[in-house]
Amino acid sequence: MNQQRTVGVGLISVGWMGKLHARAYSSVPYVYPELGIKPRLVVAADTEQSRVDYAISTLGFERGTLDYHEVLADPEVDVVSICAPNFLHAEMAIAAAEAGKHFWIEKPAGRSLAETQSIEQAVARNGVETSVGFNYRHAPAIERARQLVGDGRLGEITNVRASFLAGYAADPRAALSWRFNRELAGSGVLADLFSHAVDLCSHVVGSIQSISAATNVMIPARPKLSMGQGTHFDLIEGGEMGEVENEDYAAALVRFSPEGLAQRAIGTIEASRVAIGPQCGYRLEIYGTEGSVKWDYERLNELEVVLGRNNEEQGFTTVIGSPGHGEYSRFQPGPGNAMGFDDLKIIEAKKFLLAVCGGEKTNSTIADAVAAAALVEAAEKSAATGDWQQAGKPAQGQKMQY
User: I need a labelling partner for 374 at 20 to 30 A (CA). Which of 27, 188, 312, 344 fits?
Assistant: First the structure.
């Protein structure tokens, strides 16, 4: 883009993710100066005055408010980041779309497929751009894996394994936050981690056609926590117990759509929030007739690769992140220098702002959120009935182009 464009930014909720969004916006001109996009941090909203004050004094927002509607009504705001808890997502996203504001929202966009589709409908009515926080897509190793699949270097894809295992709720003393309440969060680990796994599978390999799933609540009760007084990371000794209403663990067998190089592929997807050991054990393995790749988020900057069936040297080769892999060269000058989670959000911010400004549209959108929500709903139905479920139509534009 040739001319510099200033984009007014509004932020809703100044928690950890809200702070990360703000820093990502501020980094875009430094990492991508040629785009000519200059985010201007206009106004931040939160229900706690201390966080509003932080947004102004530390993050650099010009002003703040306790009412998110003021962010949406501000004529100087062009784009909005929605980083509030799940149960507020649909309300805020629909309001943003109706106000004509492009928005970047964390997943799950809605607590259910129907709620996510209602957001998509509001977006379509108002013609706004969206971005959804499927941040693991942007890891250079993942983009390299996608390129290898798309170029046919792995041959026909035979099977895929995705496992998103975490231990953030492994301690029974972990507080009963909104995340364990079905009305507030929707599903549990299906929405939180499984949705990331199915999005990665769809992004790298191709859309999923059908699913057979099982779920379990491993810790059925947790100590209660007053709303707004802490998070699920807080440990409470001897408190009053409350019921966990959504699943801690999910496993699924999936079949990919009959298209492209994955037309006969079968996959397994597993997700847990109560695993002992893995903290962010998010892994993707793709096996083909001519080669295979493996990626582990806890080793973000590495990709395990094997190409060819008759190599003299057997087994996987560890390929370290380097220029030429996705957006790696924007952050590090040479191989072996590590990127981190925050860098993935900068890439996400760049893709969102570029789409808003009329440039290339490579951002994940509300359509991708609908596709993930359809798979989550199908998994829930399958777990309840024991039957295979169709996963619904692929997201618009999701069909792989090889």
Answer: 344
How far is the C-alpha of 9 from the C-alpha of 44, rounded, in Å?
A: 9
Residue after which a domain boundary falls, among 75, 103, 135: 135
Check residue 401 and give its pLDDT.
Answer: 30
Size of the chain in residues: 402
Q: Model confidence over 208-230: pLDDT tens digits?
A: 999 999 999 999 999 987 655 66
Name the residue range of residue 290's domain.
136-390
334-393 per-position pLDDT tens digit: 998 999 999 999 999 999 999 999 999 999 999 999 999 999 999 999 999 999 999 864
Neighbours of 243 (CB within 10 A): 13
pLDDT bracket for residue 312 (50, 70, 90)? low
Mean pLDDT of the chain: 93
Judged by DSSP in three states, 382 sits in helix
User: Which residues partner with 165 through β-bridges?
Assistant: 272, 281
Segment holding 30, helix H or strand E: helix 16-31
| Beta bridge pairs of residue 255 | 210, 266
Q: Under a CB-based contact definition with an 8 Å cutoff, are residues 227 and 180 in contact?
A: no
Which residue, 106, 135, 164, sits at the end of a domain?
135
Does 194 lie in the same domain as 307?
A: yes
- 214 and 129 co-located in one domain: no
pLDDT of residue 396: 40
| 311 vs 395: which has the higher pLDDT | 311
CA angle 371, 102, 367 (to 5 degrees): 10
Token code pair at residue 339: 């990127």
Evaluate whether 140 touches 328 at the Cβ level (below 8 Å).
yes
At 256, which CATH number? 3.30.360.10
Q: How many whole angstroms separate alpha carbon 239 and alpha carbon 244?
A: 15
The per-residue pLDDT for 229 is 61
Q: Which residues contact 33 (CB under 8 A, 6 or more apart)?
A: none
- Amino acid code (one letter) for 115: E
372 closest CA partner among 103, 192, 105: 192
* Residue in 361, 352, 354, 318 with CA at minimum distance from that of residue 336: 318
Predicted TM-score (pTM) of the model is: 0.92
Cα 352 to the center of its chain, rounded Å: 14
Same domain flag for 118 and 199: no
| pLDDT of amino acid 395 | 39
**What residue spans of 33-155 are helical by DSSP H?**
49-54, 68-73, 86-98, 113-126, 140-150
